[in-house]
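Try this one yourself first.
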């Protein structure tokens, strides 16, 4: 019986997987054209699995393929270019011996082994290794493909830059000297972001030591249809009775197809009694948000390492700041490379709801330790829960009182920058451990933000907006009414931050197009 996998390589005979055959065919076409390729995606984005399946896919087309990884190399092996050259050749030998290679003749394998034995006596320079590569490729009809995973491990070593330079030199001379047909490098960091480079120090830092390669630009995220296909396989085995299309769409809505997040939610539901339905998916999301894993740990580290990245993400989340998509911007390039943002309508958006909620939780947790004025006690929390549902009317009433008492005399700039954040700080401990919330990216800007709270199977739609006059407010009420139709809700909530000195602070209820809207003004 197959299972969902979130660690290491996925295998079709062992794991439930999305069908990536179309992706493999597109990479194969690039190999057919003799291209050198880079595959750069965020952590746990399916790079290793793609290379594993690509090895078999290219092997079936007759290519001699070596699949290796730099993950296991030691600092000692990076000490000099000759040591790295020898380590690379040893990895080819290991691949041929242990089934990580395809279509390697005995004569070619003997050549690899004999050369490796010589390297133990005398380390190879680039000329020696180049000649051995040329002979290997000649023995295998100049069709050799090398797949190298985890190249990030090599990024800070000058020896790796020299290794790339050697391959680049041979690539440029390939019409006269046999060399690899294709080399595919996979990792998180784009090669041009390596700290070291093969060109002189006075040249610009973005000159790439691997400018002969083409990036694989296909979206490796799973679509709802991809997820549906995987769940159909699961349903054929288990007959759970799930609405496959609906569950797949909901998982897609929360993950935007980030491979690890998709597999993690599926694995959680499969291995617990949550159920393959809306409630089960939302419960799995809650569990995921509350756990530590390598993806979230790495995100926390990146936020500490790159202060500009942190500042940009906070500006998007808290202030509704809009950034025009521009991958020449170093901060945006990093955020995209790590998988935290994507492009939508030429604007920067957070890549998925789960990543967004994890970022909110991280940033809000920092605020909680600095500002306890909005702390909600366990006793007060119970007041907001009635018959297993949130009493959102009461929550808004109490928030208005607290906010006015504490921040009512602040200036307009404060409310624009801080108001919505403080409501999130207020609501978070009330729903914590039971409910989830996210911000609808379609409506996030400096004037309007829609928060959707999922609590025990019920949704609460809350529009948070900056007051810009009665006409604007009425348009907001119309928008919220339409939004409630979309979510099949009869009641919604509006929180307005009003700077008019003659404003009436408090909570009131209106009817709009058959919908009930509870509006709170602070």
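Now uncover the answer:
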């Amino acid at each position: 019986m197959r299972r969902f996998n979130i660690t290491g390589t996925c295998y079709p005979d062992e794991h439930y997987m999305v069908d990536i055959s179309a992706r493999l065919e597109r990479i194969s076409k690039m190999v057919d054209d003799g291209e050198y390729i880079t595959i750069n995606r965020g952590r746990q984005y399916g790079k290793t699995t793609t290379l594993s399946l690509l090895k078999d896919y290219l092997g079936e087309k007759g290519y001699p393929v070596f699949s290796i990884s730099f993950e296991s190399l030691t600092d000692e092996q990076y000490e000099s270019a000759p040591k790295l050259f020898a380590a690379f050749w040893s990895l080819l030998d290991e691949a041929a011996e242990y089934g990580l290679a395809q279509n390697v003749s005995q004569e070619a394998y003997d050549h690899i082994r004999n050369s490796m034995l010589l390297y133990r006596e005398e380390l190879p320079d680039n000329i020696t290794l180049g000649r051995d590569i040329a002979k290997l490729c000649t023995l295998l009809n100049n069709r050799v493909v090398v797949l190298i995973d985890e190249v990030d491990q090599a990024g800070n070593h000058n020896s790796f830059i020299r290794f790339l330079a050697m391959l680049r030199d041979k690539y440029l001379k390939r019409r006269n000297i046999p060399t690899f047909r294709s080399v595919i490098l996979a990792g998180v960091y784009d090669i041009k972001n390596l700290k070291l480079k093969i060109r002189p120090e006075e040249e610009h830092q973005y000159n790439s030591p691997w400018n002969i390669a083409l990036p694989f630009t296909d979206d490796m995220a799973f679509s709802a249809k991809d997820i549906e296909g995987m769940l159909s396989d699961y349903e054929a085995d288990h007959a759970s009775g799930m609405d496959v299309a609906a569950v797949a769409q909901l998982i897609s809505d929360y993950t935007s197809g980030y491979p690890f997040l998709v597999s993690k939610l599926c694995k959680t539901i499969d291995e617990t009694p949550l159920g393959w339905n809306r409630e089960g998916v939302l419960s799995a999301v809650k569990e995921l948000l509350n756990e530590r894993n390598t993806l979230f740990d790495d995100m926390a580290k990146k936020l500490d390492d790159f202060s500009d990245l942190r500042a940009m993400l906070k500006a998007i989340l808290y202030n509704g700041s809009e950034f025009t998509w521009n991958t020449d911007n170093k901060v945006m390039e990093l955020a995209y490379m790590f998988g935290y943002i994507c492009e939508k309508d030429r604007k920067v958006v957070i890549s998925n709801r789960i990543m967004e909620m994890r970022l909110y939780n991280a940033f809000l947790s920092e605020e909680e330790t600095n500002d306890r004025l909005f702390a909600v006690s366990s006793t007060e929390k119970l007041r907001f829960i009635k018959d297993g549902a949130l009493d959102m009317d009461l929550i808004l009433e109490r928030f208005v009182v607290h906010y006015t008492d504490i921040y009512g005399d602040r200036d307009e700039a404060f409310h624009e920058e801080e108001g919505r954040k403080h409501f999130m700080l207020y609501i978070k401990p009330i729903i914590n451990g039971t409910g989830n919330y996210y911000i609808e990216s379609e409506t996030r800007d400096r004037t309007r933000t829609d928060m959707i709270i999922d609590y025990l199977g019920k949704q609460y739609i809350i529009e948070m907006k900056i007051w810009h006059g009665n006409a604007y407010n009425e348009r907001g009420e119309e928008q919220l009414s339409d939004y409630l139709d979309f979510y099949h809700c009869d009641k919604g909530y509006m929180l307005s931050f009003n700077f008019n000195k003659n404003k009436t602070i408090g909570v009131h209820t209106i009817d709009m197009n058959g919908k009930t809207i509870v509006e709170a003004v602070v």
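Discussion: Confidence is low (pLDDT under 50) at residues 196-207. The chain is about 50% helix and 15% strand.
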